[in-house]
Amino acid sequence: MREVEDAHDGSSSARDDTAVASDAGATTANERARVRVVVRVRREAHGDGRAVRAEVGGVRVLERSSRTRTGGREESFVAFRGACAGSGTTQRAFFDVSGTKALLEKTLDGYSSAVFAYGQTGSGKTYTMLGGRDRATREDVEENDDEEDEESDEGVIARSLRFLFDACEKRNASDDRAMTVVTLTYYEIYKEKIIDLLTNEESSCALRVRWRKQEGFHVPNLTSHECASAEEALDLVHLGAARRQVRAHNLNASSSRSHAVLTVHVDRHFNVGGEDDGAAGKDSVRCVRGKMTFVDLAGSERLKLSGSEDIATRETSLINKSLFALGKVIATLAEESRDARTASAHVPYRDSKLTKLLMDSLGGRSMSLMIACVTASERHVEETIRTLQYAARVTSIVNAPELHHEYTSSSDVEPEFGRDRELEELRRANQALRRRVSELLSNARVDDHCHPRTASPRAHDVQQGVTNHTSDVVHRVERVETLLRKYAEENRRLERENRALRARREIADIERVHALDDAERLRIRVDDLQRAFFTV
């Protein structure tokens, strides 16, 4: 039932452009953690009336009678209570208040985290996640955007990647035992088919969802790219985003026709040397495996309003079907949290590929953030209310985050880890020897300058000994430098071999998938022939 409240029109509407989340404190990694929700309101379209207003602490919807009234008191109801951001909130401000930074820190600690954008088509989901001045949504923030740098319009994903790599660098600087490896996968769910966005279009094919006890539902055989910097990761994100299925219709000139899932894996290795509890020995390595997933959901839409035809009609039908399955999962989980008697109820994760892959984020082992995107336009108020209802339900969903770490021998970790440590030790030894040589040479010069003629035979012997020792140290330094060059060359050779092996493995995986598809088609053909034969 709606809670109707009176409010003076002038006092609250002025807050809409700048209203942001006042409870931006992020979920902490407790034994159980609620899914955090933040609502972002897009400004109404030109010529359309405003029916929704963001306020500090909630989102207010105007009653129909108040939308046409020009003066007096308005009637409205609060459709969502919680964190929200008005249409004038900049990309940077939204990222700061959303709670994403805290999830990224927990990812580095070894937790799985997820951020997913939900809402109707044209409500600003892709703009929020990816940014882009070419998006129509840019008009929402132009008047209030005081950011002038090139990154001012970047979305949650780009800002998250920059924050993540900066945080990795700071943590590694404070712990010289650590090594961090960041890898990306990026795929879309288009017409209930999973397509890798980081492979060549000619070789891309539908992938399958698999289940494993340790990983849950996942997509094997995805192309995984190791990234050394945020810029390298962003290049891959832009490449994948350019390959997404996009189509224009009446409600959105560049409507995403697929659900896109970007996963950032962060593996951190620490040579603990038997210091930690559970360590396997003096060469023990602690592996902390974090994962951050960004999901840009396709928008729900009504065929009557979007005017979709032919292929677009099929796309819309499948998009709405998967979002309907997601709605059922949300409703079931919300009911479980309200009534302990339904805790054993069946959650329909298997109804679609989308819900299978979001299982960890909703009621699973991840720490999650839902960004509910809505528009303030009067003609879309029903869809907006529906989105806010979903958002309210999600706030009651409770996850059980798990720390992912293990101990192993340094010989079981990637060869680069051991080689990098050896190279670093050699560099340090080289620097120490150079400092020692400089000190000895300096002392010898000072002694010779102070006592050029009066040096006794014993002093001469001491100086000769220093000279001999210095010469020995120089030879040791030269040997170390030779070893260092050999190690570096061996490291480069092994890296080339590893790249070649990875390339061959990727080709083999693609060929295997093609073979499985061919086998499946042949099996179906045989079944058809058998049915035709027995029918005759």
UniProtKB/TrEMBL annotation:
Q: Which GO terms describe its molecular function?
A: ATP binding; hydrolase activity; microtubule binding; microtubule motor activity
GO CC terms on record? microtubule; microtubule associated complex
Checking InterPro entries in the record gives: Kinesin-like_fam, Kinesin_motor_CS, Kinesin_motor_dom, Kinesin_motor_dom_sf, P-loop_NTPase
Record carries keyword Transcription regulation: no
Instruction: Give the coiled coil ranges.
Output: 477-511
Single Gene Ontology BP term? spindle elongation
UniProt-recorded name of the protein: Kinesin-like protein
User: Would you identify the family this protein belongs to, as annotated?
Assistant: Belongs to the TRAFAC class myosin-kinesin ATPase superfamily. Kinesin family.
Comp. bias (Acidic residues) = 140-154
Ranges for domain Kinesin motor = 34-397
Identify the keywords attached in UniProt to this record, alphabetized: ATP-binding, Coiled coil, Hydrolase, Microtubule, Motor protein, Nucleotide-binding
Organism expressing this protein natively: Ostreococcus tauri
Residues of the region (Disordered) are: 1-27, 129-154
Basic and acidic residues biased stretches = 1-18
Keyword Hydrolase attached: yes
Which amino acid positions bind ATP, per UniProt?
A: G119, Q120, T121, G122, S123, G124, K125, T126
